[in-house]
Amino acid sequence: MMDSDFSHEPCHLPAILARGEELAIGSRYVAGGGVEGWEGWRRILSRSANVYARMVTRMPIADLTGGFNLIHASALRKLDVARLTSSGYAFIIELKYMLWRQGVTFAEVPIQFRSRRGGESKITSHIVIEGVLAPWRLLLR
């Protein structure tokens, strides 16, 4: 899973593919990772969303909202994908939560996330609200 606008750079693929875990996360928020070209509000929103989701869900993952992930088919087979109900960034949080709850092994690989070269952000008020509510929905299932 990766963005096709080159914000997830293909040069990170060998490190992500080299991991033996069932879920390899290209992480902006581990040592060696980072973000380039974002406005201050976007940095604050992303960092805050990750801290908030981690506090609510107790998942030991630094980059819960990041969309640069390798998920082995064996890990996906452990899930009831019909139970995935979120969209946007909340979908990524929900997917990682369900995998974590199933005991899937994971690792975070540092990446440099660069602002997209074309197009516009998909962030809407609906996505932000869903992101706030999703971690609580996951706990209450």
Write the layout of secondary structure elements.
Layout: H1 13-17, E1 23-27, E2 34-36, H2 40-57, E3 69-71, H3 73-76, H4 88-101, E4 106-110, E5 112-114, H5 125-140
Parallel strand pairs: 1-4, 2-5
Antiparallel strand pairs: 1-3
Helix pairs in contact: 2-5, 4-5
Q: Summed up, what is this model?
A:
This protein has helices spanning 13-17, 40-57, 73-76, 88-101, 125-140, and strands at residues 23-27, 34-36, 69-71, 106-110, 112-114. It is an alpha/beta fold and 141 residues long.
Q: What is the count of distinct domains?
A: 1
How would you describe the shape? Answer: globular
N-to-C CA distance? 25 Å
Element-by-element helix/strand order: HEEHEHHEEH
The residue-averaged pLDDT reads 92
Helix percent reads: 40-55%
Largest sheet: 3 strands, mixed
The structure class reads alpha/beta
**Rg from Cα:** 14 Å
Sequence stretches where pLDDT stays below 50 over 5 or more residues: none
Strand content: 5-15%
Number of helices: 5
**Total strands:** 5
Q: Which sequence of strands runs across the widest sheet?
A: 3-1-4
